[in-house]
Design a protein that fits this description.
single chain, 258 residues, alpha/beta, Rossmann fold, 6-stranded parallel sheet, 28% helix
Length: 258
């Protein structure tokens, strides 16, 4: 697999269960990381929060001692975060730390949590963007290119913390944004589409029947149906997009599990 090929559209994979989907993504994750580390000596990954990736993180943690993933060469970032301390039960970093990071042979200095609990969240977002610019090599457009960005998708079609109708959907200059999400009544820090779409590889892992309507709208041919779905904005310019579903999430698309 060449992680730098142009993408004419998502490479859609459907598995029977959420566990099967997580297992497939774990294998894909390992391939991408190994190729990046071999080619460039380092692999820059942005992880997702929420409930969907927990199974994936558990599988990666279980395999941490096999040596198949060169964790010593991996730099870990996060695609979005809630405005809570890192040890809070709702923190994306906290969940990832418990399920994955605590089990990995990775130096602490190579893990970069989002400081979304900062009193000045926009200043913190600016600092996080600068950290990314310092650590991740940019392309010709001067936007850093992650080797892999992992995303989930909500039932409302949101990705990272890019929710329907928020101003951040139209952001084209800032790479990391802090915004208030009215539907949640909370502040969030998030990658924006310019940074997401600069990635060499994007994996969107979507499971559960509550996502079925959004998946059908996203993958259908009706542009009007796609309008209003933030996930429709995920369109890597020069990278590959993998959309991995379980049968429940794909049940309204006509796609059958492998």
């Amino acid at each position: 697999m060449d992680g730098s090929v142009s993408s004419s559209g998502p490479r859609i994979v459907v598995k029977q269960t959420a566990d099967d989907a997580a297992a497939f993504v774990a294998g894909l994750f390992k391939t991408i990381v190994c190729e990046a580390a071999s080619a460039r000596g380092r692999c820059h990954v942005a992880l997702a929060g929420g409930t969907t990736p927990r199974g994936l993180y558990g599988k990666l943690a279980d395999q941490a001692t096999t040596g198949e993933v060169p964790w010593q060469q991996v730099e870990i970032f996060f695609g979005d975060e809630r405005d809570v301390p890192h040890d809070h039960v709702e923190s994306n970093y906290g969940m990832t730390q418990r399920t994955l990071l605590d089990h990995l042979p990775i130096p602490v200095a190579q893990v970069h949590p989002m400081p979304a609990h900062s009193p000045d969240i926009q200043a913190a977002a600016n600092e996080y963007e600068q950290t990314i610019r310092n650590e991740v090599q940019a392309g010709s457009d001067k936007i850093p290119r992650f080797d892999l960005i992992l995303l989930g998708m909500g039932a409302d079609g949101h990705v990272a913390s890019l929710f329907p109708a928020i101003e951040g959907l139209e952001e084209r200059k800032k790479l990391v944004l802090a915004s208030f999400v009215p539907v949640l009544g909370r502040r969030r820090m998030t990658f924006t589409f310019p940074l997401i779409n600069a990635a060499r590889n994007i994996i969107m892992l979507v499971t559960g029947q509550d996502k079925a309507e959004a998946v059908a709208r996203l993958l259908g041919g009706d542009k009007k149906a796609r309008k209003g779905l933030p996930a429709a904005g995920v369109a890597p310019k020069e990278g590959a997009l993998f959309m991995v579903l379980d049968a429940a999430a794909s049940r309204r698309t006509g796609l059958k599990p492998d």
